[in-house]
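User: Predict DegV family protein's structure from this.
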Amino acid sequence: MKTAVVTDSTAYIPKELREKMNIHMVPLNVIFGNEAYQEEIDINASEFYQEVKNKDFPKTSQPPVGQFAQLFERLSKDYDAVISIHLSSGISGTYQGAVTAGGMVEGIKVFPFDSEISCMVQGFYALEAADRALKGERPEVIMARLEELKKSARAYFMVDDLSHLQRGGRLSSAQAFIGGLLQVKPLLYFENKAIVPFEKIRTRKKAMRRMVDLLEEDVMSGAHYQAVIIHANREEEAIAWQNELAAIYPNVEFSISYFGAVIGTHLGEGAMGLGWMKK
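Assistant:
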């Protein structure tokens, strides 16, 4: 059985790697006024952070169901099955769009997978699925492997500017104002598919240290992990952090990714994250 792998743009897998691993991508959209951009196609992360300084606060939207259906229809000509891996259903309807489209298309069996997370940790699932699909594993076996990986998947995010959370309806004006005065850096994580506060931490440095402590709790088992540092237009800081952590944790394979336009809309420039999963 020949299996295709699909994910959405919020996995932020570089185009060259998607092409190498034969991963198909469906973009979410970021909207400035009346102008909609497909992220990772019409607008990249660096362009987004430049645009957001000069325009009104953007909105985001999920891919139309028809876009999924067209892709699945096209894939049905060469594949027997497709595994469609998406950002958490608790923060977007993208996964449900894949489910709906899967029921509309004939000639190919669609296996939707709710990553219950986002960004490059979601990408880890897609890369694992693609590697196994290229080796000819059956989709049911690959899906079981992805479910197994969920047990070790973690991601924590720190926002630098509370106003983005406030605008998104996750923080009241008063909380944002007081938090800003106190330099509170909320540490967020995924729980039951939603982004919720994990801890309130006073400084950026302490928030980043706390994420490392949480990583250490898992990797001290000695198992091999893959971890990713995720940044919102803070590449130099991310590189320095990677160098520091790689020297301390030899059993962890570190990489660097980014918060692109859609997730960056909700977290804001300056956000930093750390995610990991067993290899």
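The first strand starts at residue 3 and ends at 8.
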